[in-house]
Write a structure and sequence with these properties.
The structure holds two protein chains of two kinds. By secondary structure, chain A is mostly beta strands. Chain A has helices at residues 42-45, 197-201, and strands spanning 36-37, 76-85, 95-99, 125-129, 135-141, 146-148, 154-156, 159-165, 173-179, 204-207, 218-221, 224-226. Chain A contains two helices and twelve strands; from the N terminus they run βαββββββββαβββ. In chain B, β5 (133-139) and β6 (147-153) form a beta hairpin. Classes of the chains: A mainly beta, B mainly beta. Chains A and B meet through β1, α1, β3, β4 and β9 of A and α1, β5, β6 and β10 of B.
Chain lengths: 241, 208
Protein backbone atom coordinates (compact mmCIF):
# COMPACT_ATOMS: atom_id res chain seq x y z
CA UNK A 1 0.00 0.00 0.00
CA UNK A 2 1.34 3.37 -1.06
CA UNK A 3 -0.13 5.03 1.97
CA UNK A 4 1.24 2.84 4.73
CA UNK A 5 4.95 2.23 4.80
CA UNK A 6 7.50 4.37 6.61
CA UNK A 7 9.10 7.20 4.68
CA UNK A 8 12.43 7.09 2.90
CA UNK A 9 14.94 8.70 5.20
CA UNK A 10 15.63 12.32 4.43
CA UNK A 11 18.90 12.79 2.50
CA UNK A 12 20.52 15.35 4.77
CA UNK A 13 23.41 15.85 2.35
CA UNK A 14 20.89 17.06 -0.23
CA UNK A 15 19.12 19.49 2.08
CA UNK A 16 21.03 22.46 3.50
CA UNK A 17 22.95 21.71 6.69
CA UNK A 18 21.86 23.66 9.78
CA UNK A 19 25.11 25.61 10.17
CA UNK A 20 25.78 27.72 7.08
CA UNK A 21 27.80 30.73 8.28
CA UNK A 22 27.49 32.75 5.06
CA UNK A 23 23.83 32.94 5.98
CA UNK A 24 24.61 34.69 9.24
CA UNK A 25 21.41 34.07 11.20
CA UNK A 26 22.02 30.33 10.96
CA UNK A 27 25.12 30.63 13.17
CA UNK A 28 23.20 30.97 16.46
CA UNK A 29 20.12 29.09 15.30
CA UNK A 30 21.73 25.79 14.28
CA UNK A 31 21.83 22.79 16.64
CA UNK A 32 25.38 21.59 17.32
CA UNK A 33 24.49 18.14 18.56
CA UNK A 34 23.73 15.39 16.08
CA UNK A 35 20.08 14.80 15.28
CA UNK A 36 18.60 11.69 16.90
CA UNK A 37 17.70 9.30 14.09
CA UNK A 38 14.36 7.69 14.70
CA UNK A 39 12.57 5.09 12.66
CA UNK A 40 9.15 6.46 11.77
CA UNK A 41 6.43 5.96 14.34
CA UNK A 42 2.75 6.58 13.84
CA UNK A 43 3.33 10.06 15.31
CA UNK A 44 5.21 11.09 12.17
CA UNK A 45 3.54 8.82 9.60
CA UNK A 46 0.24 10.62 10.21
CA UNK A 47 -0.55 14.27 9.66
CA UNK A 48 -3.36 16.79 9.34
CA UNK A 49 -5.44 16.79 6.17
CA UNK A 50 -7.30 19.88 5.01
CA UNK A 51 -10.50 19.75 3.02
CA UNK A 52 -11.10 21.72 -0.16
CA UNK A 53 -13.94 23.45 1.70
CA UNK A 54 -11.33 25.48 3.59
CA UNK A 55 -10.25 27.22 0.42
CA UNK A 56 -12.04 30.34 -0.80
CA UNK A 57 -12.45 31.14 -4.50
CA UNK A 58 -9.75 33.85 -4.51
CA UNK A 59 -7.25 32.09 -2.25
CA UNK A 60 -5.03 31.16 -5.22
CA UNK A 61 -5.45 34.51 -6.97
CA UNK A 62 -2.99 37.04 -5.60
CA UNK A 63 -4.01 39.48 -8.33
CA UNK A 64 -7.45 39.75 -6.72
CA UNK A 65 -7.44 38.47 -3.16
CA UNK A 66 -6.23 41.75 -1.64
CA UNK A 67 -7.23 44.16 -4.41
CA UNK A 68 -8.85 47.37 -3.19
CA UNK A 69 -8.94 49.70 -6.19
CA UNK A 70 -7.62 47.58 -9.07
CA UNK A 71 -5.00 45.03 -9.98
CA UNK A 72 -1.54 45.13 -8.39
CA UNK A 73 1.32 46.58 -10.41
CA UNK A 74 3.85 44.13 -11.80
CA UNK A 75 4.54 41.29 -14.20
CA UNK A 76 1.46 39.07 -14.27
CA UNK A 77 2.40 35.39 -13.96
CA UNK A 78 0.77 32.00 -13.49
CA UNK A 79 2.68 29.48 -11.37
CA UNK A 80 1.64 25.86 -11.75
CA UNK A 81 3.01 22.41 -11.14
CA UNK A 82 2.49 19.12 -9.39
CA UNK A 83 3.25 17.81 -5.96
CA UNK A 84 4.83 14.36 -6.28
CA UNK A 85 6.51 11.95 -3.90
CA UNK A 86 9.95 10.45 -4.43
CA UNK A 87 8.32 7.47 -6.16
CA UNK A 88 6.94 9.89 -8.76
CA UNK A 89 3.38 9.42 -7.58
CA UNK A 90 1.09 12.45 -7.33
CA UNK A 91 0.22 13.76 -3.87
CA UNK A 92 -3.46 14.75 -4.00
CA UNK A 93 -5.06 16.85 -1.28
CA UNK A 94 -1.81 18.57 -0.32
CA UNK A 95 -2.26 22.03 1.17
CA UNK A 96 0.17 24.56 -0.31
CA UNK A 97 0.62 28.00 1.18
CA UNK A 98 2.74 30.61 -0.55
CA UNK A 99 3.89 34.12 0.23
CA UNK A 100 6.04 36.71 -1.48
CA UNK A 101 7.10 40.32 -1.83
CA UNK A 102 5.42 42.63 -4.35
CA UNK A 103 6.89 43.60 -7.73
CA UNK A 104 9.27 46.06 -6.05
CA UNK A 105 10.58 43.56 -3.51
CA UNK A 106 8.53 44.95 -0.61
CA UNK A 107 6.80 42.57 1.83
CA UNK A 108 3.57 43.52 3.52
CA UNK A 109 4.74 42.77 7.07
CA UNK A 110 4.72 44.99 10.12
CA UNK A 111 8.41 44.39 10.82
CA UNK A 112 9.56 45.21 7.28
CA UNK A 113 10.97 48.67 6.53
CA UNK A 114 12.49 48.47 3.02
CA UNK A 115 11.95 51.79 1.20
CA UNK A 116 10.29 50.30 -1.89
CA UNK A 117 6.60 51.14 -1.79
CA UNK A 118 3.78 48.91 -0.57
CA UNK A 119 1.29 48.09 -3.31
CA UNK A 120 -2.20 48.93 -2.00
CA UNK A 121 -3.64 46.13 -4.14
CA UNK A 122 -1.24 43.36 -3.19
CA UNK A 123 -1.25 41.28 0.00
CA UNK A 124 1.24 38.60 -0.98
CA UNK A 125 -0.35 35.45 0.44
CA UNK A 126 -2.16 32.57 -1.23
CA UNK A 127 -3.01 28.93 -0.75
CA UNK A 128 -4.47 26.01 -2.61
CA UNK A 129 -4.98 22.24 -2.36
CA UNK A 130 -3.70 19.86 -5.03
CA UNK A 131 -6.26 17.99 -7.14
CA UNK A 132 -6.43 14.21 -7.61
CA UNK A 133 -3.40 14.30 -9.93
CA UNK A 134 -1.36 16.40 -7.51
CA UNK A 135 -1.76 19.52 -9.65
CA UNK A 136 -1.95 23.09 -8.40
CA UNK A 137 -1.81 26.59 -9.86
CA UNK A 138 -2.10 30.20 -8.80
CA UNK A 139 -1.66 33.60 -10.33
CA UNK A 140 0.23 36.53 -8.97
CA UNK A 141 2.80 39.18 -9.90
CA UNK A 142 6.45 38.28 -10.23
CA UNK A 143 8.17 39.38 -7.01
CA UNK A 144 11.10 41.80 -7.12
CA UNK A 145 14.59 41.21 -5.74
CA UNK A 146 14.98 42.30 -2.15
CA UNK A 147 17.96 43.65 -0.16
CA UNK A 148 18.62 42.21 3.29
CA UNK A 149 21.05 42.86 6.11
CA UNK A 150 23.41 39.90 5.80
CA UNK A 151 26.47 41.06 3.88
CA UNK A 152 26.61 44.81 3.25
CA UNK A 153 25.18 44.41 -0.25
CA UNK A 154 23.24 41.16 -0.28
CA UNK A 155 20.06 40.85 -2.32
CA UNK A 156 17.64 37.95 -2.43
CA UNK A 157 16.80 36.78 -5.93
CA UNK A 158 13.14 37.00 -6.90
CA UNK A 159 11.47 34.18 -4.98
CA UNK A 160 8.18 32.79 -3.73
CA UNK A 161 8.06 30.91 -0.43
CA UNK A 162 6.14 27.61 -0.30
CA UNK A 163 4.84 25.73 2.72
CA UNK A 164 3.69 22.19 1.89
CA UNK A 165 1.61 19.67 3.86
CA UNK A 166 1.67 16.18 2.41
CA UNK A 167 -0.16 13.34 4.12
CA UNK A 168 2.15 13.00 7.10
CA UNK A 169 3.99 15.27 9.51
CA UNK A 170 7.24 13.63 8.34
CA UNK A 171 6.68 15.21 4.92
CA UNK A 172 6.26 18.76 6.23
CA UNK A 173 8.36 21.09 4.10
CA UNK A 174 9.04 24.77 3.62
CA UNK A 175 11.06 25.84 0.61
CA UNK A 176 11.48 28.67 -1.91
CA UNK A 177 10.90 28.89 -5.64
CA UNK A 178 13.28 30.85 -7.88
CA UNK A 179 12.89 31.99 -11.50
CA UNK A 180 14.69 30.63 -14.56
CA UNK A 181 17.55 32.79 -15.76
CA UNK A 182 17.90 34.99 -12.67
CA UNK A 183 21.67 35.66 -12.26
CA UNK A 184 21.18 36.52 -8.59
CA UNK A 185 20.31 32.95 -7.69
CA UNK A 186 23.99 32.00 -7.75
CA UNK A 187 25.04 34.94 -5.56
CA UNK A 188 22.56 34.35 -2.75
CA UNK A 189 23.80 33.00 0.60
CA UNK A 190 20.40 31.39 1.31
CA UNK A 191 20.29 29.55 -2.04
CA UNK A 192 23.92 28.55 -1.54
CA UNK A 193 23.09 26.80 1.76
CA UNK A 194 22.04 23.93 -0.56
CA UNK A 195 25.20 21.88 -1.12
CA UNK A 196 24.43 20.40 -4.53
CA UNK A 197 23.98 22.41 -7.74
CA UNK A 198 21.33 19.92 -8.88
CA UNK A 199 19.46 20.57 -5.64
CA UNK A 200 19.45 24.30 -6.36
CA UNK A 201 18.25 23.67 -9.90
CA UNK A 202 15.34 21.70 -8.48
CA UNK A 203 14.06 24.95 -6.93
CA UNK A 204 14.22 27.00 -10.15
CA UNK A 205 10.87 27.27 -11.93
CA UNK A 206 10.98 26.96 -15.71
CA UNK A 207 9.49 29.61 -17.97
CA UNK A 208 6.74 27.81 -19.91
CA UNK A 209 5.84 29.57 -23.16
CA UNK A 210 3.35 26.83 -24.05
CA UNK A 211 1.13 27.63 -21.10
CA UNK A 212 1.77 31.35 -21.13
CA UNK A 213 -1.52 33.22 -21.63
CA UNK A 214 -1.18 35.49 -24.68
CA UNK A 215 -1.63 39.19 -23.88
CA UNK A 216 -2.18 38.25 -20.20
CA UNK A 217 0.37 36.36 -18.07
CA UNK A 218 3.64 34.42 -18.34
CA UNK A 219 3.60 30.86 -17.00
CA UNK A 220 6.22 29.23 -14.76
CA UNK A 221 6.27 25.52 -13.93
CA UNK A 222 7.35 24.46 -10.46
CA UNK A 223 7.03 20.82 -9.32
CA UNK A 224 7.54 19.94 -5.68
CA UNK A 225 8.74 16.54 -4.45
CA UNK A 226 7.89 15.24 -0.99
CA UNK A 227 9.29 12.18 0.77
CA UNK A 228 8.08 8.83 -0.58
CA UNK A 229 6.97 5.79 1.39
CA UNK A 230 8.74 2.46 1.50
CA UNK A 231 6.60 -0.51 0.65
CA UNK A 232 6.17 -2.92 3.53
CA UNK A 233 7.07 -6.04 1.52
CA UNK A 234 9.89 -7.34 3.73
CA UNK A 235 8.67 -6.13 7.06
CA UNK A 236 6.47 -7.81 9.59
CA UNK A 237 4.81 -4.72 10.94
CA UNK A 238 1.67 -4.47 12.96
CA UNK A 239 -1.20 -3.12 10.90
CA UNK A 240 -1.29 0.62 11.25
CA UNK A 241 2.23 1.01 12.48
CA UNK B 1 25.86 0.69 -16.07
CA UNK B 2 23.10 -0.80 -13.97
CA UNK B 3 19.39 -0.14 -14.12
CA UNK B 4 18.30 3.26 -12.84
CA UNK B 5 16.31 3.18 -9.62
CA UNK B 6 14.20 6.04 -10.88
CA UNK B 7 13.45 7.79 -7.62
CA UNK B 8 12.98 11.55 -7.53
CA UNK B 9 14.90 13.67 -5.04
CA UNK B 10 12.96 15.50 -2.36
CA UNK B 11 12.71 19.25 -2.95
CA UNK B 12 15.48 20.81 -0.83
CA UNK B 13 14.32 22.79 2.19
CA UNK B 14 14.92 26.52 2.52
CA UNK B 15 14.46 28.79 5.50
CA UNK B 16 10.94 30.07 6.19
CA UNK B 17 12.49 33.53 6.55
CA UNK B 18 11.40 36.41 8.81
CA UNK B 19 8.09 36.99 7.00
CA UNK B 20 6.72 33.45 7.15
CA UNK B 21 3.60 34.84 8.85
CA UNK B 22 2.46 36.49 5.61
CA UNK B 23 1.74 33.02 4.30
CA UNK B 24 0.79 31.20 7.48
CA UNK B 25 -0.78 33.86 9.73
CA UNK B 26 -1.75 36.75 7.44
CA UNK B 27 -4.36 38.13 9.84
CA UNK B 28 -1.76 38.21 12.60
CA UNK B 29 0.40 40.53 10.47
CA UNK B 30 -2.62 42.66 9.56
CA UNK B 31 -3.15 41.25 6.08
CA UNK B 32 -6.87 41.01 6.69
CA UNK B 33 -9.73 40.07 4.42
CA UNK B 34 -7.82 37.46 2.42
CA UNK B 35 -8.96 34.57 4.58
CA UNK B 36 -11.23 34.68 7.57
CA UNK B 37 -8.94 33.19 10.17
CA UNK B 38 -5.39 31.94 10.39
CA UNK B 39 -5.15 28.14 10.32
CA UNK B 40 -4.28 26.17 13.42
CA UNK B 41 -4.89 28.77 16.15
CA UNK B 42 -7.72 26.85 17.84
CA UNK B 43 -7.38 23.16 18.65
CA UNK B 44 -10.13 22.59 21.17
CA UNK B 45 -13.92 22.90 20.77
CA UNK B 46 -16.47 22.50 23.59
CA UNK B 47 -17.20 18.95 22.33
CA UNK B 48 -13.54 17.87 22.30
CA UNK B 49 -12.86 15.02 24.69
CA UNK B 50 -9.93 15.13 27.08
CA UNK B 51 -8.17 17.14 29.76
CA UNK B 52 -7.59 20.79 28.79
CA UNK B 53 -3.99 21.92 29.11
CA UNK B 54 -1.90 24.91 28.13
CA UNK B 55 1.45 24.40 26.44
CA UNK B 56 3.76 27.39 26.38
CA UNK B 57 7.39 28.36 26.20
CA UNK B 58 10.10 30.11 24.22
CA UNK B 59 12.52 29.11 21.50
CA UNK B 60 16.04 30.29 22.41
CA UNK B 61 19.05 30.79 20.15
CA UNK B 62 22.66 29.99 21.02
CA UNK B 63 23.10 33.36 22.75
CA UNK B 64 20.11 32.67 25.03
CA UNK B 65 17.83 35.18 23.30
CA UNK B 66 14.24 34.17 22.51
CA UNK B 67 13.28 33.99 18.83
CA UNK B 68 10.54 36.51 18.13
CA UNK B 69 9.96 35.36 14.57
CA UNK B 70 9.65 31.59 15.06
CA UNK B 71 6.63 29.62 13.92
CA UNK B 72 5.72 26.52 15.89
CA UNK B 73 3.48 23.68 14.74
CA UNK B 74 2.28 20.79 16.89
CA UNK B 75 0.75 17.44 15.96
CA UNK B 76 -0.73 15.10 18.54
CA UNK B 77 -3.12 12.24 19.21
CA UNK B 78 -6.52 12.69 20.81
CA UNK B 79 -7.31 11.78 24.41
CA UNK B 80 -7.60 8.08 23.45
CA UNK B 81 -4.28 8.03 21.61
CA UNK B 82 -5.71 8.12 18.07
CA UNK B 83 -4.57 10.44 15.30
CA UNK B 84 -7.08 12.34 13.17
CA UNK B 85 -5.44 11.24 9.92
CA UNK B 86 -6.42 8.99 7.00
CA UNK B 87 -3.32 6.95 7.85
CA UNK B 88 -4.73 6.11 11.28
CA UNK B 89 -5.82 2.44 10.99
CA UNK B 90 -6.45 1.63 14.64
CA UNK B 91 -9.81 3.34 15.01
CA UNK B 92 -11.58 6.62 14.52
CA UNK B 93 -10.17 9.66 16.27
CA UNK B 94 -12.31 12.22 18.09
CA UNK B 95 -14.05 14.09 15.23
CA UNK B 96 -13.92 17.28 17.30
CA UNK B 97 -10.13 17.30 17.50
CA UNK B 98 -7.92 17.78 14.45
CA UNK B 99 -4.74 17.42 16.51
CA UNK B 100 -2.76 20.03 14.62
CA UNK B 101 -1.97 23.55 15.76
CA UNK B 102 0.18 26.42 14.64
CA UNK B 103 1.22 29.51 16.59
CA UNK B 104 3.69 32.30 15.94
CA UNK B 105 6.03 33.26 18.77
CA UNK B 106 4.98 36.60 20.24
CA UNK B 107 6.67 39.43 18.31
CA UNK B 108 7.72 41.21 21.54
CA UNK B 109 8.38 38.48 24.10
CA UNK B 110 8.93 35.43 21.92
CA UNK B 111 6.46 33.34 23.94
CA UNK B 112 4.38 30.75 22.12
CA UNK B 113 1.20 29.27 23.54
CA UNK B 114 -1.25 26.48 22.66
CA UNK B 115 -4.50 25.54 24.33
CA UNK B 116 -5.02 21.86 23.70
CA UNK B 117 -5.73 18.54 25.39
CA UNK B 118 -3.39 16.02 26.89
CA UNK B 119 -2.88 13.22 24.34
CA UNK B 120 -3.35 9.52 25.07
CA UNK B 121 -0.52 7.01 24.58
CA UNK B 122 0.24 5.62 21.15
CA UNK B 123 2.31 2.55 20.24
CA UNK B 124 5.87 2.51 18.97
CA UNK B 125 6.59 0.46 15.83
CA UNK B 126 7.08 -2.73 17.86
CA UNK B 127 3.80 -2.28 19.76
CA UNK B 128 5.23 -1.02 23.06
CA UNK B 129 3.46 2.14 24.24
CA UNK B 130 5.24 5.46 23.96
CA UNK B 131 4.70 8.02 26.72
CA UNK B 132 2.15 10.78 25.97
CA UNK B 133 3.86 13.30 23.72
CA UNK B 134 3.27 16.14 21.31
CA UNK B 135 5.31 16.38 18.11
CA UNK B 136 6.79 19.82 17.45
CA UNK B 137 8.03 21.36 14.20
CA UNK B 138 9.90 24.66 14.37
CA UNK B 139 10.76 26.99 11.50
CA UNK B 140 12.21 30.50 11.52
CA UNK B 141 14.67 32.83 9.87
CA UNK B 142 18.10 31.20 10.23
CA UNK B 143 16.70 27.63 10.37
CA UNK B 144 17.41 26.02 7.00
CA UNK B 145 15.36 22.87 7.54
CA UNK B 146 12.40 22.68 9.93
CA UNK B 147 13.36 21.10 13.26
CA UNK B 148 11.41 18.13 14.62
CA UNK B 149 11.25 17.46 18.32
CA UNK B 150 8.83 16.07 20.92
CA UNK B 151 7.38 17.36 24.13
CA UNK B 152 6.73 14.97 27.00
CA UNK B 153 4.94 15.67 30.30
CA UNK B 154 6.71 15.99 33.68
CA UNK B 155 3.82 14.30 35.50
CA UNK B 156 4.08 11.11 33.41
CA UNK B 157 7.22 9.80 35.10
CA UNK B 158 6.39 6.10 34.83
CA UNK B 159 5.38 6.32 31.16
CA UNK B 160 8.40 8.48 30.33
CA UNK B 161 10.69 5.94 31.98
CA UNK B 162 9.47 3.16 29.67
CA UNK B 163 9.08 5.23 26.48
CA UNK B 164 11.02 3.49 23.68
CA UNK B 165 11.83 6.82 22.01
CA UNK B 166 13.20 8.49 25.13
CA UNK B 167 15.12 5.24 25.67
CA UNK B 168 16.90 5.81 22.36
CA UNK B 169 18.64 8.92 23.68
CA UNK B 170 22.16 7.75 24.48
CA UNK B 171 23.07 10.72 26.68
CA UNK B 172 20.57 10.43 29.52
CA UNK B 173 21.39 13.97 30.64
CA UNK B 174 19.68 15.21 27.48
CA UNK B 175 16.35 13.45 28.15
CA UNK B 176 15.02 16.30 30.37
CA UNK B 177 15.30 18.71 27.42
CA UNK B 178 12.16 17.00 26.06
CA UNK B 179 10.12 17.08 29.26
CA UNK B 180 7.83 20.04 29.86
CA UNK B 181 7.36 21.27 33.43
CA UNK B 182 3.87 21.21 34.89
CA UNK B 183 2.45 24.33 36.52
CA UNK B 184 -0.96 25.91 36.87
CA UNK B 185 -2.65 28.98 35.43
CA UNK B 186 -6.26 29.98 36.16
CA UNK B 187 -6.98 26.44 37.35
CA UNK B 188 -5.67 24.84 34.15
CA UNK B 189 -2.59 22.61 34.04
CA UNK B 190 0.16 24.44 32.21
CA UNK B 191 3.24 22.83 30.72
CA UNK B 192 6.28 24.97 29.98
CA UNK B 193 8.38 23.63 27.15
CA UNK B 194 11.38 25.80 26.31
CA UNK B 195 13.30 24.87 23.20
CA UNK B 196 17.04 25.61 23.02
CA UNK B 197 18.38 25.52 19.50
CA UNK B 198 22.01 25.45 20.51
CA UNK B 199 24.39 25.31 23.46
CA UNK B 200 24.48 23.78 26.90
CA UNK B 201 20.75 23.10 27.21
CA UNK B 202 20.32 22.16 23.54
CA UNK B 203 17.03 20.36 22.90
CA UNK B 204 17.16 16.92 21.31
CA UNK B 205 16.05 17.23 17.68
CA UNK B 206 15.03 14.24 15.57
CA UNK B 207 15.83 13.02 12.11
CA UNK B 208 12.61 11.16 11.51
Amino acid sequence: MVDQGPFYHRDRSWHPPAFTPNYKTSVLRSPQQALLSLDNTISEMTGPVFGHDRIGPLDNDLLRNFAKTGDPIGQRIVVYGRVLDENGRPVPGALLEFWQANAGGRYRHKKETYLAAIDPNFGGCGRTITDEDGRYWFRTVKPGAYPWPNGVNDWRPAHIHFSVFGHAFAQRLITQMYFEGDPMIWQDPIVMTIPDKAGIEQLIAALDRQNTLPMDALAYKFDIVLRGRRSTMFENRMEGN
Amino acid sequence: MVQKLGFLKESPSQTAGPYVHIGTNPNWVEITGVWKEDLGLVLVAPETKGERVIIKGHVYDGAGDPLKDALIEIWQADAEGLYNSPQERRGRADPHFVGWGRQPADGTTGEYRFETIKPGRVPYSDGRLMAPHITFWIVARGINTGLHTRMYFSDEEAANAECPVLGRIAHKARVPTLIATRGEENGLPTYTFDIHLQGEKETVFFDI
